[in-house]
Amino acid sequence: PAPSTGKAVVAVYGFTDKTGQRKPSERMANISTAVTQGSEVWLIKALQEVGGGTWFQVVERIGLENLTKERQIIRQARAAVSDTRELRPMLFAGVLVEGGIIGYDSNVLTGGAGARYLGVGPSTQYRQDIVTVTIRMVSVQTGEVLLSVSTTKTIISTGTSMTFFRFFDMGTNSLEAEMGHSINEPVNYAVRVAIEQAVVELIKEGERKEYWQFVK
Fold this sequence. Notes:
The protein is of the alpha/beta class.
């Protein structure tokens, strides 16, 4: 439900990858990061959409330099044509929403199962990864950390295959065939879901601490 106090103006300066993790590889060193480096996009979107857009009014801070330059251009253009209209002041935030991706654990759980009868049978393998994010809300006036929450999301990868193995001609020839497919849950989706859940938990925690109340 919506808050009884109305929308809070919040600013997001960044939401960084603090894991330092690279994509898992069993064969070679991988320079690609394991998680997205632009997760602040998901945080801003989650803040804007939570509760049907009734909770937070997000102001631009990540591209603040570009925004400031554009406002300066407007002022100069108006001055050149003697336009006396004042440019509306920018909104200032009452709270900052900060945090980051603090954990990416790969191969937390691995396993599989399979069976064959007369050389024919299926097998299944799976792998579990976990991503952890944390979000905190900070008062601009006092610098106090008002709220802090952490959430985790499990990433499951599975593979299924069918194997056929037979001997022919008194054991002198053999035939083996195998087919299968793998399903890997996107890490980017897992990060997005974890951030959205963290925003929801942040609101619930704020209600428990009586920073706001739900409209009844």
